[in-house]
Amino acid sequence: MNRVLRVVVAVVVPLAATVAVSLPTYAARTPAGSASTCRSTALNRTTSTDKSSYARGAPVHVSTSLVNTSQRTCAVNIHACVSATVTNSSGTVVWSAVPFNALCAQYIVRQRLAPGQAVSRSWTWDQHVCVLIGRCPGAQVAAGRYVAQGHWGGGIGDATPTTFTITT
After folding, report:
1. Distances in Å between the alpha carbon of 36 and those of 61, 152, 156?
2. What is the pLDDT of residues 116-129, one digit of tens each?
3. Closest CA to 128 of 64, 57, 63, 52
């Protein structure tokens, strides 16, 4: 039995070492010649809607953008769950592009941005309450003033919000 164990160890250990050495690494390394990470101060984060006022029931187009305002190319790590929210005049979230109970993929895309280059995400909101999977669409929201805000996460942070109204 002792001899069998020695043979197994002699075969398995080098094989395991070979497999471990050949596996790709996913550590956060910056390849030679790639752009350095953008500083927060070099990024302008904005939220916008396609209109400042909407008739009740009309689709609301919400976008959030990230612009490199520096004079050099740099990179940002964009997480899978970039989102936007809409809050009513009481400060209650009535819509989230990614519902709060959603599971998001845990991947990150490193994107290079030249000076002045932007990356953006857009959604269409149907004016119905939706913050949790399984409870969408909810009721039509009331007429009034609303605030949309983009959320980039991952150290990038939240975008500057924008306001709009829903009329009767």
Report:
1. 33, 19, 15
2. 999 999 999 999 99
3. 57
The stretch 47-73 carries a mean pLDDT of 98
pLDDT tens figures, 97-148: 999 888 888 888 999 999 999 999 999 999 999 999 989 999 999 999 999 9
| CA nearest to 65, candidates 40, 87, 42, 48 | 48
Q: Which helix (H) or strand (E) holds 78?
A: strand 74-79
Structural domains of the chain sorted by starting position, each given as residue range(s) with its CATH number in brackets: 40-167 (2.60.40.2360)
DSSP of 113-153: E-TT-EEEEEEEE-SB-BSSTTS-S-PBPPSEEEEEEEE--
115 upstream amide cis, omega within 30 of 0: no
Q: For residue 71, what are its two tokens?
A: 């004079």
Closest by CA position to 95, among listed 66, 132, 58: 132
The helix or strand, by DSSP H or E, that contains position 11, with its residue range, turns out to be: helix 2-22
18 contacts 129 by C-beta, under 8 angstroms: no
